């Protein structure tokens, strides 16, 4: 499958899945349609030579309503290569 270009040589699993979002970090990370999606994990293809390692962060740009933020914990604010703050989402209504 790798020879045919249907499966990446490098990849990672994200906790959670079926995210309505676009991958933005690490550079070149993308969904892998062959593997498919799951609600508790998601396999993401990485470009060859990716520097992503276990414990690194992946960032996605949401394409859905901010109303789902209530289902998660605080938002980690990432700046200058590190998490600098935690923001608690406003309560609904």
Could you explain the architecture of this structure?
This protein has strands at 10-15, 21-25, 30-31, 41-46, 59-62, 75-79, 82-87. The protein has 93 residues and is mostly beta strands. It has one domain (10-87). A three-stranded antiparallel β-sheet has the order 1-4-3, with no helix packed on it. A hairpin with a 2-residue loop joins strand 6 (75-79) and strand 7 (82-87). The protein is globular and about 45 Å long. The N and C termini lie far apart (49 Å).
Our count of domains comes out at 1
Order of helices and strands: EEEEEEE
The helix content, as a percent range, equals under 10%
Mean pLDDT: 80
- Which runs of at least 5 residues are low in confidence (pLDDT < 50)? none
Report strand %: 35-45%
**Radius of gyration from the alpha-carbon trace, in angstroms:** 15 Å
- Overall, the morphology is globular
Order the strands across the largest sheet as they lie in space. 1-4-3
| Count of alpha and pi helical runs | 0
Give the oligomeric state of the chains in this entry, treating copies of one chain as homo and distinct chains as hetero.
single chain
End-to-end C-alpha gap: 49 Å
């Amino acid at each position: 499958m790798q020879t045919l270009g249907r499966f990446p040589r490098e990849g990672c699993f994200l906790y959670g899945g079926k995210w309505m979002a676009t991958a933005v970090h690490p550079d070149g990370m993308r969904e892998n349609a062959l593997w498919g999606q799951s609600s508790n994990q998601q396999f993401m293809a990485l470009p060859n030579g990716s520097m992503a390692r276990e414990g690194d962060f992946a960032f996605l740009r949401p394409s859905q309503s901010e109303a789902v933020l209530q289902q998660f914990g605080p938002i980690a604010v990432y700046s200058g290569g590190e998490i600098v703050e935690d923001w608690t989402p406003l309560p609904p209504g």
